[in-house]
Amino acid sequence: MAASVLFVLLLAAAAAASPASAAGEKQTHIKLYWHDVVSGPSPTAVQVAHAAVTNTSKTGFGAVVVIDDPLTDGPDLNSSKPVGRAQGTYIAAGKDTVALLMNMNFVFQGGKYNGSTVAIMGRNEVFSAVREMAVVGGTGVFRWARGYAQARTHTFDLKTGDATVEYNLFIKH
């Protein structure tokens, strides 16, 4: 009997010590646009490594790209309001389909989220209509964040390789 009482007390203490209780959690939805610029004199995405098979692969398998992509509140890079940067990497991880391993921080640089970040990681099968990736953490306003991000390609320029992707973030924090 004493052991079961001790177990219940330990369980209650562990629940009280958890970083965010369900009652105190916030849920935030953010819609923004990610601009991956690989062309021109000032690209925001650059390939920094590749495998021996990358150049002959139909999917670019093995390419590693570092990004510092603009995030805006609308789809037009030139007329939309900047809200931050997407900083990180993506790696061509699919041998048979164009699928990227995304590892990036959305760094907010204005408004109520200024200075906060959201960490996103997951598989991005580029030619699927909707791709879902995990929100695995955050800082500032988004400390203890978890949730998911949905990506939808808004535009993709076949000549330049530049892309604009709509991201919807669903965050518990």
Structure report:
There is one protein chain. With 173 residues, the chain is mainly beta. It has one helix spanning 2-16, and strands spanning 27-36, 45-49, 64-72, 82-92, 99-108, 117-125, 131-139, 146-156, 163-172. An 8-stranded antiparallel β-barrel has the order 1-3-4-5-6-7-8-9. The longest helix has 15 residues, at 2-16. The radius of gyration is 20 Å and the shape is globular. Mean pLDDT is 91; it is low at 5-11 and 13-18.
Describe what is shown at a glance.
The chain has one helix spanning 2-16; strands spanning 27-36, 45-49, 64-72, 82-92, 99-108, 117-125, 131-139, 146-156, 163-172.
Number of strands: 9
Roughly how much helix do the residues carry, as a percent range?
A: under 10%
**Average pLDDT:** 91
Q: Please list the strands of the largest sheet in the order they lie side by side.
A: 1-3-4-5-6-7-8-9
Q: Helix count, per DSSP?
A: 1
Major β-sheet, in short?
8 strands, antiparallel, barrel
Query: What is the radius of gyration?
Result: 20 Å
Percentage of residues in DSSP E strands: over 45%
Helix/strand/pairing category:
mainly beta
**CA-based shape:** globular
Distance linking N and C termini:
38 Å
Low-confidence stretches: 5-11, 13-18
Secondary-structure element string: HEEEEEEEEE
Question: What's the structural blueprint in terms of helices and strands?
Answer:
Elements: H1 2-16, E1 27-36, E2 45-49, E3 64-72, E4 82-92, E5 99-108, E6 117-125, E7 131-139, E8 146-156, E9 163-172
Antiparallel strand pairs: 1-3, 1-9, 2-3, 3-4, 4-5, 5-6, 6-7, 7-8, 8-9
Keywords:
1 helix, mainly beta, 173 residues, 9% helix, globular
